[in-house]
Amino acid sequence: MGDKAADNYSDVTDFILVGFRVRPEFHILLFLLFLLVYGMVLLGNISMMVIIVTDSQLNTPMYFFLGNLSFIDLSYSTVIAPKAMMNFLSEKKTVSFVGCVAQFFFFAFFIVTEGFVLAAMAYDRFIAICNPLLYSVHMSRRLCTQLVAGSYFCGWVSSLVQVSVTFSVSFCASRVIDHFYCDSYQIEKISCSNLFVNKMVSLSLAAFIILPTIVVIVVSYMYIVSTVLKIPSMEGRKKAFSTCTSHLGVVSVLYGTVSFVYLTPPSNPELRKVASVFYVLVTPMLNPLIYSLRNKDVKQALKKIRWGKKTLF
After folding, report:
1. Are 177 and 83 contacting, i.e. CB atoms less than 8 angstroms apart?
2. pLDDT tens digits along 2-46
3. Of 188, 190, 30, 18, nearest to 94 (Cα)?
4. Could you give the CA distance from residue 54 to residue 51 in angstroms, rounded to a whole number?
5. Could you give the CA distance from residue 80 to residue 253 in angstroms, rounded to a whole number?
6. Mean local confidence (pLDDT), 131-145
7. DSSP alpha helices (H): ranges in the chain?
8. How confident is the model at residue 292 (pLDDT cuts 50, 70, 90)?
9. Predicted local confidence at residue 88, as pLDDT
10. Dihedral Cα 209, 212, 214, 220, nearest 10 deg
């Protein structure tokens, strides 16, 4: 029995990504839609990284984290979008076994890393508002680098574990993944193996990696709200809380869309696909807009760049 399972596993050389179950004439429309949104993801996040790197006034912990957030958003969209767009225009719609493993690994890696970076940003806002006099002492360049490096390390460990468990199973005759990318739930659906270990590993990762990031964010904002409410003037409270609104918006969008995906009934796979588009493409597109529209420093940096271009010409 074990040999048979091993044979099934070794025979898998590629998978078929079904994508969206729509009429063939709508595939070109989906391609154009993905191309438009992905183009905005590239433009927004690359612009944000360039602004942060080139403007010396943005050389602060908050923008150091934001630069990494833009890089992560850009990266996990790039892991998914180009392949999905290629499949919209292709009749085969296949992905190699190695390609599927690589896509799964890097997507999981960047998504988990983003959760930790958002937690680090929440801690940064907590120190800035609750202990502003010691902000520069607490949020040193060394600590910020350690927090970001730790985020990438946790993302790498989590992704490595998920890939090892997900692709160690044996597969049935079907190679069809009912999604537009290599999604863990859909991969498990075509497995012939007992998935008890997979589910235990998923729960363990959620308990020891995902849950702590949410706890840090929630506790940080509990202290932030408590501190802001103690400020006597309404203007002071608005000013203090305005430094957190962009981060809170990004956290709400990301965790809201991810929660919606995993709370959507498995009996409705098309709705899950649509919801997946939001955190694969829409969230990375919105994040730079949220930070640029709600942030005076970023607006001023953009004005400097525009003014510099005018003086050159």
Report:
1. no
2. 444 444 444 678 999 999 989 888 999 999 999 999 999 999 999
3. 18
4. 5
5. 19
6. 92
7. 2-11, 27-54, 61-88, 97-130, 135-138, 141-166, 184-189, 196-205, 211-229, 234-263, 269-277, 283-293, 296-312
8. confident
9. 94
10. -150
Taking the alpha carbons at both ends of the chain, their separation in whole angstroms is 74
Distance CA 59, CA 46 (A): 17
Encoded tokens for 208: 């020891």
Sign for the CA dihedral angle at 65, 76, 284, 264 comes to negative
Alpha-carbon radius of gyration of the chain:
22
| 94-96, strands of its sheet edge to edge | 94-96, 14-17, 176-177
Within 10 A of 73 (CB to CB), how many other CB atoms are there? Answer: 25
Is residue 182 a contact partner of residue 104, using CB atoms and an 8 Å limit? yes
Per-residue pLDDT tens over the stretch 155-207? 999 999 999 999 988 888 778 999 999 999 899 889 888 899 999 998 898 88
CA pair distance 218, 238, nearest whole angstrom? 20
Spatial distance between the Cα atoms of 206 and 225, rounded to a whole number of angstroms: 27
Cα Dmax for the chain: 74
Candidates 155, 82, 144; CA nearest to 115 is 155
Angle at 192 between CA 190 and CA 193, to 5 degrees: 120
Q: Does the pLDDT of residue 1 top 70, yes or no?
A: no
